[in-house]
């Protein structure tokens, strides 16, 4: 899965709120040319209808079905925080933004869910000192 590159990983996010975190991960997707700014707006719309909190310190914000045309190419962006972000009453340290062309994001979601279901993997990701360690642990890197 060629959807995540080192320049789409931020190890020390600056957001302090859920909305700031969505904006921060969305900006990474925009900066790599993967999505338009309208896709980021759709990420907020999705969050207002359904929480993207997944458990084990993870949230996966993504756009609505109506925003598919705003995706130029499937991509993932990762922001890790040194402090908990309150995500509707749940602590989040990893915000993984996903943009998928077609249904390609479903495989990516499955791979991320598998990694984050393993608490030792989550611990490894919290200790990662480089984007390449995150790439390796998530298994979503461009080859």
What letter string, H or E per element, gives the SSE order? EHHEEEEHHH
Distance between the termini: 8 Å
- How many domains? The number is 1
Annotated CATH architecture: 3-Layer(aba) Sandwich
Task: Give the low-pLDDT segments.
Answer: none
Query: In percent terms, what proportion of residues is strand?
Result: 15-25%
Largest sheet, spatial ordering of strands? 1-4-5-3-2
> What name does the CATH topology carry?
Mannitol-specific EII, Chain A
Structural class: alpha/beta
Specify the CATH class: Alpha Beta
Structure description:
- The mean pLDDT is 92.
- It contains five helices and five strands.
- The chain is globular.
- Strand 2 (53-55) and strand 3 form a beta hairpin.
- It has one domain (6-138): Mannitol-specific EII, Chain A.
- A five-stranded mixed beta sheet has the order 1-4-5-3-2.
- Helix 1 runs antiparallel to helix 2 (37-49).
- The protein is α/β, with parallel strands linked by helices and 143 residues long.
List the helices and strands and how they pair.
Blueprint: E1 9-10, H1 18-31, H2 37-49, E2 53-55, E3 58-59, E4 75-87, E5 90-99, H3 104-116, H4 119-127, H5 131-138
Parallel strand pairs: 1-4, 3-5
Antiparallel strand pairs: 2-3, 4-5
Helix pairs in contact: 1-2
